[in-house]
Write a structure and sequence with these properties.
Number of strands of chain B: 12
Helix content of chain B: 25-40%
Number of strands of chain A: 0
Shape of chain A: flat
Strand content of chain B: 25-35%
Number of domains of chain A: 1
Order of helices and strands of chain B: EEEHEEEEHEHHHEHEHEEHH
Strand content of chain A: under 5%
Oligomer: heterodimer
CATH superfamily of chain A: MetI-like
CATH architecture of chain A: Orthogonal Bundle
Shape of chain B: globular
Structural class of chain A: mainly alpha
Radius of gyration of chain A: 21 Å
Radius of gyration of chain B: 18 Å
CATH class of chain A: Mainly Alpha
Structural class of chain B: alpha/beta
Distance between the termini of chain A: 59 Å
Largest sheet of chain A: none
Strand order of the largest sheet of chain B: 8-9-10-3-11-12
CATH topology of chain A: MetI-like fold
Distance between the termini of chain B: 33 Å
Helix content of chain A: over 70%
Largest interface: A-B, 22 and 31 residues
Order of helices and strands of chain A: HHHHHHHHH
Largest sheet of chain B: 6 strands, mixed
Chain lengths: ~220, ~260
């Protein structure tokens, strides 16, 4: 079928509200998942790096298990299995939970890698001037780890935006589902999928630019 | 004149698994002493130094600074490690300079010196900055206070690291092979700083391979051999008339002449 550009713009204008809502839900679900997943992931990373065996080993199992599971399976499990276990979550909540859990396992590994890459002389120097471990972490380890984590973390954030499309499967009205609904009404496959693709790209491009900006701001002169 | 020793090590033992690296070391220092520890690698000299500020745990014996037991105490007749908080406080009694400098790379020279003053000594940032600048000036690096470690030469980094340790006004300074990682032409600027500190009466314990320096600066030299103190005494005596065959051999093989 052939459509003119004017027709596309016309349909786009009619569908503007659901599409914008879709963008909003995509950004909201990804952002919530990134924030919650990062907070959780920092604790996972700390446990993996400094935890005693009774804490470290379960966390090791957690990250390996989650990282080895497809996100779609996590999304479905979170929506359907938690439901049968008596924890009733709406599709949006269940989807964000699944994404956050997935994000936390990745961030946990990134944090562990960054902390372990810091030379142990840094901890010794901090000890030698009398800092406690928590002071050492806040003033010495974390600032160095964050700089190292940043590029990988930006990648993970972009992955979360892409993974949020899977929430459409459990009926979350994200950008993908909103686009599909417009397509099923207008049959304009190509333009609306391209348009959705462009919007996803724009969101991730924004994240990537933001990452570069922070990297520049926190660069250590040498 | 004998007063209470600033440092008193008794029967210090340390082993890694089955390997005993310190086999009963006894040593004491008075205020103002400058003691150099020499010996071949693996003799336990660095390990001994690191036990004094609990960077290494030790298996037996005691270390006292100003009469205070470091790291462990007897509770109900059993030897127990002190709390992490208490150990952190005791670590600040001594200052340490490391072979690899270990400056914090994300902080400027001044911030490196200020960190302990703010976090441990609870100074305000302004007070800490004033103290930091005073000590950076002392090691000749005031003009580099806003430089980051990556912008400084090895010798300059080590001088900042020494300023960072000394700014905390420790009762005893520990130097762990502080010139070993430096290019030969940068060694001297660091030794000069240490020499000045010695002249001003700072109590210092140095592990070093700089025999000439040990000879000239120290009030006493300790020769460690296989986890024990092999010989100990006046530097001139020891270097010129070593009593033990091991020390004579060690001096012959090291660059001292």
């Amino acid at each position: 079928m052939d459509f003119s550009f004017a027709q596309f713009l016309h349909e786009l204008w009619i569908a503007r509200v659901p599409l914008l809502q879709g963008v909003g839900i995509t950004i909201a679900s990804a952002a919530l998942a990134i924030v919650a997943g990062t907070v959780l992931g920092v604790f996972v990373g700390l446990a993996l790096t400094y935890g005693a065996a009774p804490l470290r080993l379960p966390m090791r199992g957690y990250t390996d298990f989650i990282r080895g599971t497809p996100v779609l399976v996590l999304v479905l499990a979170s929506y359907y299995i938690l439901g049968t276990a008596g924890i009733q979550l709406g599709p949006f909540q269940a989807g964000v939970l699944a994404l956050a859990v997935f994000c936390s396992s990745h961030v946990g590994e990134i944090v562990r890698g960054a902390l372990q890459a810091i030379h142990k002389g840094q901890i010794e120097a901090a000890k030698a001037i009398g800092l406690t471990f928590s002071q050492t972490f806040v003033s010495v380890l974390m600032p160095q780890a964050i700089r190292q984590i940043l590029p990988t973390w930006v990648n993970t954030a972009a992955e979360m935006v892409k993974a949020s499309t899977l929430l459409s499967i459990i009926g979350v009205g994200d950008l993908l589902l909103a686009s599909q609904e417009v397509i099923s009404r207008t049959f304009m496959n190509m333009p609306f999928y391209l348009f959705a693709g462009f919007l996803y790209f724009a969101i991730n491009f924004g994240i990537e630019r933001f990452g570069r900006f922070v990297e520049r701001k926190t660069h250590i002169p040498s | 004149m004998t007063t209470n020793p600033i440092l008193e090590i008794r029967n210090l033992h340390k082993h890694y698994g089955d390997v005993e690296v310190l086999k009963g070391v006894d040593c004491s220092m008075q205020r103002g002493d400058v003691v150099c520890v020499i010996g071949s690698s693996g003799s336990g000299k660095t390990t001994m130094l690191r036990c004094i500020n609990m960077l290494e745990e030790f298996s037996d014996g005691s270390i006292r600074i100003d009469g205070e037991d470091i790291g462990y105490e007897l509770r109900d007749g059993r030897r127990q490690r002190k709390s992490e908080k208490e150990v952190a406080r005791q670590r600040a009694l001594t200052g340490m300079a490391f072979q690899q400098f270990n400056l914090f790379p994300h902080m400027s020279a001044a911030e490196n010196v200020m960190l302990g003053l703010v976090k441990v000594k609870k100074m305000t940032r302004d007070q800490a900055r004033a103290v930091a600048e005073k000590w950076l000036d002392r090691v000749g690096l005031l003009s580099r206070r806003d430089h980051y470690p990556g912008q400084l030469s090895g010798g300059q980094q080590q001088r900042v690291a020494i300023a960072r340790a000394i700014a905390m006004s420790p009762r005893l300074m520990l130097f762990d092979e502080v010139t070993s990682a430096l290019d030969p032409e940068l060694v001297n600027e660091v030794l000069v700083v240490i020499q000045d500190l010695a002249r001003e009466g700072m109590t210092m314990l140095l592990v070093t391979h700089e025999m000439r320096f040990a000879f000239e600066v120290s009030t006493r030299v300790i020769f460690m051999n296989q986890g024990r103190i092999g010989e100990e005494g006046d530097p001139k005596e020891m270097f010129l008339r070593p009593k033990s065959e091991r020390l004579a051999e060690f001096l012959k093989n090291s660059s001292f002449h």
